[in-house]
Amino acid sequence: MAGRFLFLVAFVFVLSAKSVFTQSDSSAVLRKQANKQKAMKVINKTLHVLSLLNYSDRTYDRTFSGAEAYKIFEGKEIERIDVEILPPFGVTIDKPYNDRFTKFQRFANSIQFTTKERIVRNDLLFTEGEKVKPQKFTDTERNMWQDAIYKDLKFVLCEAENDTTKVVVKVIVQQRWSWSISTSAQFDKAMLGIEFKNIGGLPQRITQQVSANYRKDNPYLVFGEYEYLNIRKSRINVYGKYLYQPIERGGDIRLSRNFFSSESHWAARVSTGLYQNSSIIPNSLADAIKGKTYYNYQDAWGAVAFKVKNPNSSTEIHKIILAARYYRKHYDDRPFSISKDKTVRFLNREYYLGSVGYATWNYFQDDNVFLNGGSEYFPLGLNFNWVFGAEKDEKYGRRFYNNFRMSYSAAFPKLFYLNTDFSLGGYYNGKDFQQKLFQYRLRLYSAKVNLGKKIFFRQFITFKANVGFDRPKDRELILNDATGLRGMYTSQLTAQKIYTITLESVLYGNFKVFGFNGSVALFADLGWLQNNKPYQMQAVQGIGASLRLRNLNFGIGYFDFSLVFYPNFLNTPQKPYTFLYVPEFLKGIRQDNLFEYYSLEPEYNGQPTLR
Question: Quick check: is 608 in a domain?
Fold first, then answer.
């Protein structure tokens, strides 16, 4: 059914750009158009039913204008802040008043846990009586949007009636429905769940899901989450989860406080978890490896920031950051420490790391880049840091770790956005340096190129070089889906040095079909593996196409269906082609500096360790 759904939407989406311009006064054409409208209604109803394969109450596509929108009010005193809270159904922020609700809208709104006004005010980084700072307003927009508590939000500023030196701020938010049924059909499972949000009018949610997995050795999964955001305006969040399936059971708990604004002085994150496995699945396409494991982990990170004066910019904030992290993972039971093919490890690990660095708080807002609508945020500016500390490895003992990392991001709105970084690090065991690694990464996407009124184009380029020296066999680098070759889930493509290039051309439709935004992409992932002989390389390529859809009315925030073919395939258990179905947003360009905890780990490569 999901395949028919994809074909139907893709067919109508591709043909619609042409069909909307067909007009004629002849009776034959009018009859044809009438029949077409009837067919469209049938298709629309069909899509509505099929949309239940992947539904949840999501946010709207709103594109924010950033700090520039507030600069005309900069320096003026905030006289008053008014808050308006809209129900989830029957109204929008642009049309907030409605006296003709449907029966379902009235019922759904009546059982809504109405957000308390003080909860909205707790999210605001600006207060009455202070001067307008554009960066505070755009930081607040960004936080509230990324927390995804509200379906929509908007700030309206206007001068006070009797004093042009003061402004009145109106904050309008539309609630997401407190009672959500979430369904999803994915490439490896079918899921049904329920989510309770905004319980008691507070920023908390409880999620409970059950899925049927497409695996005989692990046929089902029960999964639950709890989260409370911004406890008493402290910006401290609490999160907990559990999972239970035939081959794995366990849970995590976490307390965290992020660098939530340009004026944040500290951040911290503490988490712990306990898991028991009867078998291990190395990746979604691999067979399970039998053997019991029982392990626990602890992870603690903290950072403080000191502002560096920058008189040349009011939006780009520079800070010196001191950070530290402790991580421990311990196995009480395991079938082996390292598998025979060296691709699976159950090793006890512990490390203590410190870091000092220079970081930039600034970001670029864009839309229709990785998502087909809505605001997306990309880091800007120069960042660099030195990481140092000790790691206790079960196989290689206690070693000292050193790494230097630098990144730079810039936006040329009419040309392209560029993000580049490099790092150099390694271990020292008291006698010599080991396991050295040089990493370089370049990511670039072009500005919109209009191809008529209804279609535009972007080009994406990504280059990665991971160059290792003196790396033992069980610590060789891996080429797979996470490191540059999408759809490649095997762990057997290993080498001392790996280079990848991704070229991706994307056509976006600047129109909607039955509420769907869409884009079509053609891509080529090219990878090279090199060991000690400099002129001997093995090459593997992935060439394919993607259909990407978005329809928030149907609860589809991001939907990517890709077909990848590997023409020069190496000898691995994986087939020479892969179908990928990605029902959530997994792409983007992260802020890899000391504002984020995940960048402080040994040999960090842009893919944070989950646990």
Answer: no
Nearby residues of 445 by Cβ (< 8 Å), 6 or more positions away = 369, 416, 417, 458, 459, 460, 461
CA distance 607 to 482: 7
pLDDT in tens, 270-282: 999 999 998 877 6
d(CA 559, CA 53): 12
Give the position of tokens 């626990």: 296
How many residues in total does the chain contain? 611
Contact 583, 559 (CB under 8 A): yes
- Rounded to an integer, what distance in angstroms lies between the CA atom of residue 475 and that of residue 81? 56
pLDDT at 6: 45
The pLDDT of residue 553:
66
10 Å CB burial of residue 75 (0-12, 13-18, 19+) is exposed
Q: 536: exposed, middle or buried (C-beta count within 10 Å: 0-12, 13-18, 19+)?
A: exposed
What is the three-class DSSP state of 57?
A: coil
CA-to-CA distance for 506 and 519, rounded, in angstroms? 7
**Total domain count for the chain?**
2
Question: Among the three residues 31, 53, 75, which one is the final residue of a domain in this structure?
Answer: 53
8 Å CB contact between 131 and 75? yes
Cα Rg, the chain, nearest whole Å = 26
Angstrom distances, CA of residue 295 to CA of 250, 458, 611: 10, 45, 11
**CB atoms inside a 10 Å sphere around CB 363:** 22
| Contacting residues for 563 by C-beta, under 8 A, at least 6 apart | 544, 545, 577, 578, 579, 580
Query: In angstroms, rounded to a whole number, what is the distance separating the alpha carbons of residues 496 and 471?
Result: 7
Q: 190 in a domain, yes or no? A: no
Tell the burial category of 385 from Cβ atoms under 10 Å away from its Cβ (0-12, 13-18, 19+): buried
Q: Return the amino acid letter for 375.
A: S
Low-confidence ranges of the chain (pLDDT < 70): 1-26, 28-29, 36, 40, 43-61, 65, 185-187, 282-287, 311-315, 339-343, 534, 553-557, 569-574, 582-588, 605-611
With residue 267 as reference, give the H or E element that holds it.
strand 266-280
pLDDT at 543: 93
Instruction: Please indicate, yes or no, if residue 215 is contained in any of the structural domains.
Output: no
What's the pLDDT at 551? 76
- Specify if 329 maps to a domain: yes
Nearest-angstrom CA–CA distance, 171 and 334: 54
For residue 356, give the nearest of 322, 404, 308 by alpha carbon: 322
Contact assessment for residue 327 and residue 348, using Cβ atoms and an 8 Å cutoff: no
d(CA 515, CA 9): 11
Dmax of the chain from CA atoms? Answer: 90
Q: What single-letter amino acid sits at 586?
A: L
CATH code of the domain containing 435: 2.40.160
Asked if 461 and 442 touch (Cβ cutoff 8 Å), the reply is yes
DSSP states of 406-417: EEEEEEETTTEE
> What pLDDT score does 1 carry?
45
Q: What confidence score (pLDDT) does residue 505 get?
A: 94
* Exposure string for 80-118, b = 16+ CB within 10 A, e = fewer: ebebebbbbbbbebeeeeeeebeeebeebbeebbebeee
Domain extent for 414? 247-599
Backbone angles phi, psi at 553, to 5 degrees: -65, -30
